Amino acid sequence: MIRSAGKILMLVENYFPQDTRVKNEASLLTDAGYQVTVIALRRKGQAGRETLNRIEVYRLPTLELFKKTPSANVNRLNLLFVKLKAFLGYVVEYCYFTAACLIVSTYIFVSRGFDVIHAHNPPDTLFLVALPFKLLGKKFVFDQHDLCPELYRSRYCAAEGFYTRILRMFEWCSLKLADITIATNESYKQIQFKRANKNPRDVFVVRNGPNQMRMTPVAPSARLKEMNKFILCYIGSLNPQDGVDYLLRSLRHLLHDLKCSDFHCVIMGTGDSLQDLRDLAEKLQLNGCIELLGFVSDEDLQANLAAADICVDPDPSSPLNDVSTWIKVMEYMAYAKPIVAFDLKETRFSAGDAAVYVRPNKEAEFAEAIAQLMAQPELRKQMGAYGRRRVEHELQWNTVGKNLLTAYETLLAEK
After folding, report:
1. What distance, in Å, lies between the first and last C-alpha atoms of the chain?
2. Model confidence over 232-262: pLDDT tens digits?
3. pLDDT tens digits, 185-208
4. N or C end of the chain: smaller count of CB under 10 Å?
């Protein structure tokens, strides 16, 4: 066990413990002997301060300004207005969260102290919280969940320009100030080398992986099983860049063009596009065969996932998705589920033979792949078994998380 000399302060502009990666990292470090404190956003019904499994949690009120997603068929002028509102909204929200983190961090520093500030992006402004403490000799870890310039371009179908230059500046500052950086895959690692000239010994790849709870079999949802239909399942965020609109249009093709009605699709997750997706489902006449459940409890999520026959990853090709790794793919594999996905580099690396791959962004081909897999029960079983073995031996959190412990051993050995 690592000695308990390390006190870590984590910053995340998300809910805790709902953010799976942050929860996994905080839990792993706590189990390894570190004292971990987390500053996060406060969800309705959550306490402002509490201790969860030895992790001290401080929660800040959530501030959200404006709708940040363009409606379907929006014209160029309205799209420009949406982008401007989104930019102003993000500026205010990120400035608020960064300033609030600085205040709470100062309180924690005075009251109990810490050795490391570990910032999870987005936003890339949290280096401003770490800066004064760096001057006092504390360490800074930058954990890059997303490439913010690519996230902006993918979300708004935008080219390089004014906004992306600002985002690249913040990203560069975060990478440069960090004593060590965490990348979720080799693609992100190479990008950190290229954009900030990081020393290879200061960059650690900590992949997303399901924890032990996801590896334990659970009873499938009786409600879904009683439908006697093929159950399709999606878990994850519902934002413009996540491709759930591609999934809905694929299901319309499956239902109306391929005349395949023997399915029910369960979509679990929240995000800025949830209501837009519900409207799109109604427009596509899918309401009888899909459910957009929004946020569900962990118990319901596991039961629904256990009941699935096929899981889907509709992330389209985009500047962000082409190099990103999504934990939902590994969670599908942990439940031994076959996957239909667009053929993206990091998705193929993660899933291997557990997925059927479709040319990126081809909705009709995505529907055809689902139909073909529905007709091949033995193939589904083989794909699911392969995915389960790959997670057990290579991709579960207990395996991939070891690099995080190595990163901290390296970081604090320099004290």
Report:
1. 18
2. 999 999 999 999 999 999 999 999 999 999 9
3. 999 999 999 999 999 999 999 999
4. N
Backbone angles phi, psi at 16, to 5 degrees: -130, 130
Q: How confident is the model at residue 1 (pLDDT cuts 50, 70, 90)?
A: very low
Residue 391 has a CB neighbour count (10 Å cut-off) of: 27
pLDDT tops 50 at residue 126? yes
Q: Residues 399-411: what's their mean pLDDT?
A: 96
Could you tell me the domains of the chain?
A: 7-209+397-413 (3.40.50.2000), 215-394 (3.40.50.2000)
3-state secondary structure the chain: CCCCCCEEEEEEEEECCCCHHHHHHHHHHHHCCCEEEEEEEECCCCCCEEEECCEEEEEEECCCCCCCCCCCCCCHHHHHHHHHHHHHHHHHHHHHHHHHHHHHHHHHHHHCCCCEEEEECCCCCCHHHHHHHHHCCCEEEEEECCCHHHHHHHHHCCCCCHHHHHHHHHHHHHHHHCCEEEECCHHHHHHHHHHHCCCHHHEEECCCCCCHHHHCCCCCCHHHHCCCCEEEEEECCCCHHHCHHHHHHHHHHHHHHCCCCCEEEEEECCCCCHHHHHHHHHHCCCCCCEEEEECCCHHHHHHHHHHCCEEEECCCCCCCHHHCCCHHHHHHHHCCCCEEEECCHHHHHHHHHHEEEECCCCHHHHHHHHHHHHCCHHHHHHHHHHHHHHHHHHHCHHHHCHHHHHHHHHHHHCC
Per-residue pLDDT, 302: 94
Q: What is the C-alpha to C-alpha distance for residues 184 and 171, in angstroms, rounded to an integer? A: 15
Angle made by CA atoms 365, 366, 369, in degrees to the nearest 5: 85
CB atoms within 10 A of CB 220: 17
Residues forming a β-bridge with 56: 37, 51
Point out the least confidently predicted range of 65-69, 107-111, 155-159, 403-407: 65-69
pTM, whole model, 2 decimals? 0.90
